[in-house]
Fold tRNA modification GTPase MnmE.
Amino acid sequence: MNYTRDNIVAIASGTGYAGVGIIRISGYDLFPIIEAISGKKNLKPRYAQYCNFYDDKNEILDSGILIYFDNPKSFTGEDVVELQTHGSPVVLNMLLKYCISLGCRHAQPGEFTKRAYLNGKLDLLQAESIADLIHAESEASAKGAIKSLRGEFSHFINAINERLINLRMFVEASLDFPDEDIEFVANAKIKEKLEVIRNEIHPLLKTTRQGVFLNNGVNTVIIGQPNVGKSSLLNVIANEEVAIVTDIAGTTRDIVKQKIIIDGIPFNIIDTAGIRQTEDAVEKIGIERAIHAISEADICIILIDSRSGIMAEDKLILEYVPDHVKKIYVHNKIDLSGEVPRISVEAEKTNIYISAKHKAGIDELRKYLLDTVGFESATESLFIARTRHLNAMQKAVSHINTAFVHWEELEILAEELRYAHTALGEITGEFSADDLLGEIFSKFCIGK
Ligand code: GDP
Ligand code: ZN
């Protein structure tokens, strides 16, 4: 990955007016720049200094706090200066321009974090979690991102990787020295070691999937006719934590997507009420999008008026819901039909009887939704993860499973273990292609 050691600068604080704004510079030999901006020389690292900030004509632009971090004990691992000014966009931009005229380059999105990664301050997974933390939309997501940033997820991956490396050495050695006695002893240990790895990686796959839910939300499709109570249901399941009940997707004929938070876990609710048979070309495009969204669903709620039962239109849409998607039949308006709130499982179908209007059966439904995606409670200790991590983890698990089947065939075993190791290494960035890094960091905001 190309890494030029030039000095980069950016406004690190958010856009808009604020009490305080921060400019961050990273690179080497920053003293001349610091002196030009603040008049200060030979700064003591990690000490906050109150000072004036000047422009090229030595006029005072602002006064504030300056902190210098010497390498490698800084965020990026390089020398870093932070200028804390008043949070005026105009002041910040004047200072930024001056820094650029002093030879700094305006940083690209994520460039500070990329340097931190390239200098070994963070692994790739931790670097990604910084962006996830900044963009977190629920408390649980933010807490999960902090856990990943602090290395909890990486720790599990590294622990498994260490076992894999150890086992690979064992297997490769048995391949190189195929003495029968050694092989016999080795084989016994191989199976044992594989078992340990398998027992560790399977639960990690589950928590990774939950980590992705925390990051992206649980995709939930609601199938239900107009007036069956979808909006009412959304409002009551989101409860007082509502925080966000916004439309994500755009145009009128497009799918309607809403994000709600249940017990701290984000759910993306897709309303499919618009799907019906049509000859209208534009409407067809909208319907295709809805069908695509359905194909990516994790859960499907079939919302039914408990007086009329499931409708023919619902059955039509249900055909598009993939088999692996968890389906929940929710019977609404029980206050009108005289049912009592309850959950019943009949012929492997889960039925939940509720009244959205009278808030009956809602706790049961909320709990069921969380259970379905494997969450016991929001207080559960979870780290955040990305689809990229989940895919790599699935790849690793499948190679471990194959390794297990062929554990007596050393050559196949060696190959499968190598694949599993590579897949896990991709998560932390131990093995990663330049284009992947480019893609990951370009999605950051500038100044991070
Ligand atoms: P949507 O079109 O599927 O989003 O349905 P709405 O949530 O807008 O509800 C349609 C109507 O049904 C509204 O007048 C709601 O107050 C009413 N409604 C929703 N849930 C219930 C319920 O459990 N009992 C009763 N009696 N009315 C309900
Ligand atoms: Zn509605």
Remarks:
- The chain has 15 helices and 13 strands.
- The first helix runs from residue 31 to 38.
- The mean pLDDT is 87.
- The domain at 224-373 is CATH 3.40.50.300 (Rossmann fold).
